[in-house]
Write a structure and sequence with these properties.
Blueprint lengths: L1 E2 L5 H16 L7 E5 L7 E6 L2 H8 L17 H7 L14 E4 L8 E8 L4 E6 L5 H12 L20 H6 L5 E3 L2 E4 L2 E4 L4 E5 L4 E2 L7 H6 L3 E2 L2 E2 H9 L5 H8 L3
Antiparallel strand pairs: 1-3, 2-3, 4-5, 4-11, 5-6, 6-10, 7-8, 8-9, 9-10, 12-13
Length: 252
Amino acid sequence: MIKCKPGEERASCLHLMRKMVAHLTTGQPLHIVSAVVIDTVKGYIYVEAFKHSHVQEAVIGVSTLRFNAKNQRLIRISEMTDVLKIVKAVPRLKERQWVRIKRGIYKDDAAQVEFVDETASSISLRIIPRIDYAHLRDKHRFALEGKKAPPPKKDFRPAAKLFAPEQIKEVGGEYRRDGDMYLFQGGRFTIRGFLIKAFPPTNIQVEEVKPSLAELEAFDDTLDGINFGQVSAELARSTGDVDSVSQRFAQG
């Protein structure tokens, strides 16, 4: 189990694959068996080999992976089967289909299907995030005073609100850009402010989901005549200031 930059899990696996192919032509192949990404495990990838030294050798030069031994963990034999275990089949879903979350902080929230990964048995949903801005503000204030902020209130459920970069800055939070997406606290957010998050099929209600009028309006990609899908695609091809654009059109 190798630590990598959040959001770079798939890119790291592809880099390893290309490195393996390149080494085959040199007569010095890498001695790893496979590299696996689990969408529900953020910031890590799994690399299979017969020796730990083979893994260490393979990750050298892959900038998105952490080479230090403290960022690598051997998986116990009893846990290995859980990594690639076969789970209940993913229900047949289509893009933008309405679903609801069954458990957790997003319980009963409406969401739309973004992507179905049948190999990982997970479903990526587009959902309105619930970010605890008050706790972020407290953490920043206590940090300035050299103190540790108290933990968030137990069972507290923040309000559902689209991700707004300017508000994150105001409370001392930090985020970064990745193409037409924002990365914040391990999550990926669209320019419009939706969170793209993977859920197991068992945590998703598929049948008899009827969004309310307010939910339909909140998820509408066209606001005041502006097509956010088109805007997002254009920003991905440019180097313009996406923060000012998203702040103008983010609802909240």
